[in-house]
Each structure stands twice: as C-alpha cells, then as structure tokens.
Amino acid sequence: MSIEAFxxxxxxxxSGELSVEGAKNAALPIFVxxxxxxxxxxxxxxxxxxxxxxxxxxLESLGLEIxxxxxxxxxxxxxxxxxxxxxxxxxxxxxxxxxxxxPMLAHEKxxxxxxxxxxxxxxxxxxxxxxxxxxxxxxxxxxxGYVEGETAELIGNKVVFxxxxxxxxxxxxxxxxKATGITIIENAAREPEIDDLCNFLVKMGAKINGIGxxxxxxxxxxxLYPCEYSIMPDRIVAGTxxxxxxxxxxxxxxxxxxxxxxxxxxxxxxxxxxxFEIEGDVLRTKTKLSQLKPAKATTMPxxxxxxxxxxxxxxxxxxxxxxxxxxxxxxxxxxxxxxxxNRMGANISTDANMxxxxxIKNFSSAEVMASDLRAGASLVLAGLLAxxxxxxxxxxxxxxxxxxxxxxxQALGANIERIKVEI
Length: 423
What we know:
Elements: E1 2-10, E2 16-19, H1 24-33, E3 39-44, H2 50-62, E4 65-70, E5 73-78, E6 85-86, H3 88-91, H4 101-108, E7 110-114, H5 127-135, E8 139-143, E9 146-150, E10 158-160, H6 166-176, E11 182-186, H7 192-203, E12 207-209, E13 215-219, E14 228-230, H8 235-247, E15 252-255, H9 263-271, E16 276-279, E17 282-285, E18 296-298, H10 310-317, E19 323-327, H11 338-343, E20 347-351, E21 354-358, E22 367-369, H12 373-385, E23 388-393, H13 396-399, H14 405-410, E24 415-422
Helix pairs in contact: 1-2, 1-7, 4-6, 5-6, 6-7, 8-10, 8-12, 10-12
C-alpha cells in the first residue's frame, strides 16, 4: 500500500508571491448552512481541499445537488432533504461534519448525526452543541454512536457557553435563525469565520445582531432566501505564508491578508522585531530572519493568538537566536510536531502545555511525519530551509487545509514534489 508524501530538497532561495485561498473554516459551515432553506446557492472563493470534497459527499447523501462551476465556485441546489441521517462513514472523516445538525433541525426539526472524527489533536466533545440545542427545545438522545435530536418547534432562548466553542457557536446560530423568538448566545466564539457565516446568513435574510462580539442576538425568521456569496480568505494559510516570508528574508510577498483577522499573530511577530508593509491585501516583509528576537506566545480563543498558527510559529522560533516559549491552552495534544522538528535538529523541550524553543542556526533534513494539518505545514516550512532531502509523510493532513501547496511553492522556485511512499 502506498500513500503520498512531500520530497523537499531544501536550502534553495525562493521568492515571489503566495496567494491565499478561501478559508476552509469559513467555507465548511457556509456549505452546511445551505441545508437550512430550499433553493439555489452560488458560493465563490471556495478552496480546493480534501475537506470540501468530504463535505460535498455528506451533503449529497442528505439530498443536496452540488456542481463545481469553476476552480473555486460551486452551485448548490437544495430541493429538500432526502435523508435526516449523517452516517458514521462520512462524519468520521471530518469533525466539521457535525455542523449539519443545526441546519437539519432548522429545516426539518429532526436530525440523526454520527458522533464526529477529525484531527487527533485533543478532546473536542460535542456537549456544548447539545446544550445549545436543548436550550432551543430539542430533545436529545445519544444511542449507538449517534446523536438524535427532535423538536416540534425551535424556541428562542438564552444560551450561555462555558467555553467559546467555534463549532458549537456555529451550530446553534444555524438552528436559531429559524427558531421562534429571540436567541441570545453568551460567550459566543468570535473567530472571523463565524462572522463570515453570520454575514452569509444575514444576506439570506437572517436577523443577527452583535456579529464579531461574544454576545449574539438572533431573531428567528420563518423563511430565508438563497444567495450568492464569496468566502473570506484563509487567515491561517495567510499566517503560514507570512512565516515563510520571514524565513526567506522577505523575498516572499503574501496576497490575501486581512490584518484584522490575524492581528494578535502579526502583533506577536512585530514584538519579535518583524516589520511589515501592507498595501491592499498584499503583505511584504521588510525584516531579515536574523533580526528577529525570541518571544513568548500563548494560544487563546480569538482575538487571542490562534492555536492553528502555533506550529508554524514554533518552526519560526526554532530559527531565532535565544529561547522562546509557547503555551498551548486550547488543545492538549497539539505538540505532536515537536518530536518531528527535533528530528530535524530543533532544540525544543515540552512540559505539559508549555514548549521551550532554543534557537538553532538551521534545520537538518530528515524523514518526518505530519501528525495533523498545521503540524504538516510547519514541517514543510522547515524542510524548505534545511540542507538536503526531507520527506514529509502523511501529507493527506496538509491537503485538508492547504490548496496545492507544493504547486504554489514550486512557482517560487522551491524544490518540492509529491511522491508515493510504500507503507
């Protein structure tokens, strides 16, 4: 049996412009939201990713008709749901699949959804989702690995989250837009991708106040109207590419940057001594790698430092003279890339949720393994700079969140190719 890997011959100077694709974590819930109301939707700036393909199969199994119109645009036709069950075979491949429950409850007042899967980066229970649905009057039953929800009518209510969960916030929003009365979500997650979902729903006719804040007020409506919508650019891809621009002394510019979406990340880089110039949505780095200083970063829910940029930031910190620290507060298993970076010559020690990074002059090539999506990207970055041949295995993780990464890097002059390896 063979799987795909990246073969990278590092140490080559690369330069040019990297373009950021549409945001995976915005596209997925917006795709799912088309379950709420019958009609025809046009979605643009959709990234070409494994997760989109996976979700498309799930939505088609529920009765949607999905057509790819061009490289980044889709037509979705909802003529009514033909099934109210999201099966384990499809949901297990991607955690975001559980988001179908809220829209199905909004559309049909009933849903049966398998408990989810996803990256192995830590415990992400669905209890907050279920707590929100129950507050709206849904009777929940968990049986044989499936969550069953049913209600005669969704009734607006106050939902207070113990933690600002992105998925739970999105799921409850999508149920609440057609509930009778007003729903208030306290301690709602504030990620830009949630704003994008809300803006999409508002364009459909939903009434949502407080977008961008931790308190959302949703007045339910009887009917929504399908629309055309363009997905926001991917802030995590943008952050990853900004790290690449710093690693290569500013010879890489990044197109598709919305500073407000990654303010805490850019501010941390500026604290390290980085200087940037942003014209429109194009960011240019004006700082050499050697000028950066060590720093301490703590991952936090938005607007704090994003956990999804922790591993690319760690790769950068490895190349900064001195000792840096990263504290991970979101996921308990998100240091699985540390042993792999250490295989490449990094000097990183961990203690519980704290990583201490002592700078090195450069990475050394090695065969390594992507343990999750962002870890895979961090290893590719390290391989680009390392002397010699690096093999990054299990790149199906990377394909879940970065569109044609090797093709984009090849265009800058990188020696990277996709190969088959036997397992």
